[in-house]
Amino acid sequence: MHVNSTTEEKEIVTRQKSKLGVRLFFVYLICYAGFVALGVFNYELLSTTVFSGLNLAVVYGIGLIVFAVIMGIIYNYYCTKYEDDAERADKLTKEDTNDL
Amino acid sequence: MIYDISITALIFFCIFVGLVLGLSFYFGRKKSDSSSYYAAGGQIHWAVNGIAFAGDYLSAASFLGICGMIAIAGFDGFLYAIGFLAGWIVALFLIAEPFKRLGKYTFTDALNAKFNSRAITLSASISTLIISVFYLIPQMVGAGDLVMPLLGLPHWVGVILVGAIVIAIVASAGMASTTYVQFLKGGLLIVLSVILTGYILKNGLSLSPGGKENPYHKFIELTPKIEGDKVTAVTNWNLESQQVVGGKTFVKLNQNGVDRWFYLTEKDGKQTLKETLTIVQKANGEKLYNGETKDKRKFYQVGHLSKIIVNGKEVEKTGAVGPFEFLSTIKESEVVRFLHAKITDGTDQVSLYYPEITSGTKFMLPGLKYKIGTDASLWSKLDFVSLMLALFLGTAALPHILIRYYTVKTPRDARKSTILAIAAIGGFYILTLFIGLGAGVNGVMDVESSNMAAPLLAKAFGAVLFSIISAVAFATVLGTVAGLIVASSGAIAHDFIDIYLKKNLSDDNKVKVGKIAAVIVGVFAILLGMAFKGINVSFLVGWAFAIAASANLPAILFLLFWKRTSSTGISASIVVGIVSSLAIILTSPTMWDKYGLGAENSMHQLENPALISFPLAVLTVYVFSILYPKKDVKVDS
User: Fold this and answer.
1) Mutate to test the interface with A, among B93, B379, B562 (most CBs of A within 10 A)
2) Would you call A61 and B81 a contact, using CB atoms and an 8 Å cutoff?
3) 8 Å CB contact between B514 and B37
4) CB-CB under 8 Å, A53 with B331
5) What is the mean pLDDT of residues B233-249?
6) Chain B residues with CB-CB distance to A52 below 8 A
7) Contacts of A53 in chain B (CB under 8 A)
8) What ranges in B216-278 are assigned the alpha helix state H?
9) What is the ipTM metric for this complex?
10) Which of A12, B121, B311, B402 would suit a FRET pair with B546, their CA atoms being 20 to 30 Å apart?
11) Kindly report the CA angle at B513 between B507 and B514, in degrees rounded to 5?
């Protein structure tokens, strides 16, 4: 990460996080909208058995719940990484020891 | 339903409520400045806050409402779980961190951080109040439902009880105490749901639920003599009358001086009369349950499987099952649901609950409440989309959820809290599918209100489990109501009186005004709780979500993601969001039914307003921000 001052750095982290958040949001939105669209336009497909005797409605529904949790963990992982990277870079710049 | 008072339940209940009250008084004594009243002083640990988030969110709607709706309408109840959780994605990815960077105590402060506009203060505090009130209604309805089997008291007593306890909690303490109450209750709720699900799976599925101690009522089936479509005689019974309502035929028979109603069904050309559950309201005020007075106890809990199929073979019972096996077996089997019909018989008002066999395939698909199959009308499809939209967009815009972002120190902690909350809530929602279905097939349902599905199921597994779950559910209601009342008293005292009216209250006075506001909102909530008795609480919460999604979310999103958003745009969007969603709700079929005008005569058939009101509010914030851009704002602020 090529950054010079603390304030700019923080802004960059904020922007990185916000960009990641928006992207992940759209990924989830598409999955969620897919479920709703399936309900409205191809309802019959939801009754197909897909896994261990469970129909698509149940699998998709539970899947959406589990997927939300997984996406939350991914988001937190990257946000923490961005913040830590920035902090480390900040420290390094301050101590004036190494280039990044 | 006819309920006995349970002493064990009563004892546990009192201990639990005492614990909650004690805790809140303890924390209430410790801190008393306004920052700790409204936002717990920003000093709560993220993990505690995360579970408290879950506690806030897993309100009566989740525990009582979703389980209840799954029990009577199958997968359609689960739609609420899916939508309620998806809403957190919006909260986490788009709102949580930027909001934390903006705000102080309330939703209004955050919205107004960049503008300092009085119009925003006013409109945002009104929207906070309205959303809180709409969210309070289902909590109060749920509270009333809870005390009926628990204490054997009428619905309105429960509503008043909750109202009074919460007013006491809030007026004495504030946000710090509600956070710990929510933490405790959120954690317990999840643990108990795991235990309950364990019981359900261990118990398996059976054609005669309830076992030996508590046998399930054997519903009478009679073979009538029929000419054309008229029943002419039934052996051993005197034929009294026959009525057709909504295509269903009901026959009144008499035996030993007792009037009973039967439902005429036909299968493979053979006609059968099936016993129904009835409540007859006589003109003289007398109420008969299945033709007899209340003390004869002839009214039953219902909901069972009429056929269980495992690996293509019909069986009596399955024994213990795994989670997938549980779901797939119900899908292959046949569920008997009890549907409601109202008829007038002379001067008597008759409420009939008749058995309807539903294939497991249908039960495990959406469509029993929100009709979305190929034969469904456009209105009902739109209704489904509208509901899913409201649930998705509503969470992030609920004032009592937003307020929790401020109770931790850093944005990083707010994020971690939110993710922990999502995991906890997600896990809980998956369990609601099992608990709801378990309640639907284990003969525990109260036909008069679906809200008690989960606690009544627990009752079938033992008095202690029932009492603990009821107590936790009651605490759930207490905690949520407390959080909501803090949010709305904040809107009145802090936003409206302090900032909008520019009263410049001292810290002490701010807390005092907040407490007075809390009492007023509490009393109002009690009255509404009584008025909406009998409606599924998840359904009611759907409205609160729709209003929140329409009134608050467009304003928040534009503020955070569009630099040109102006204060006029924000306040106009809030007003349009509230007015349009309220207008649609107040003219909806459910409200028409409440007014006594008949659901079918309502002005439109849309039950959930979000599909119209949300885009309208988005359009408003955009258009008004362009028409009245930012620079003009300074003049009126």
Assistant:
1) B93
2) yes
3) yes
4) yes
5) 86
6) 324, 328
7) 324-325, 327-329, 331-332
8) none
9) 0.85
10) B121
11) 90
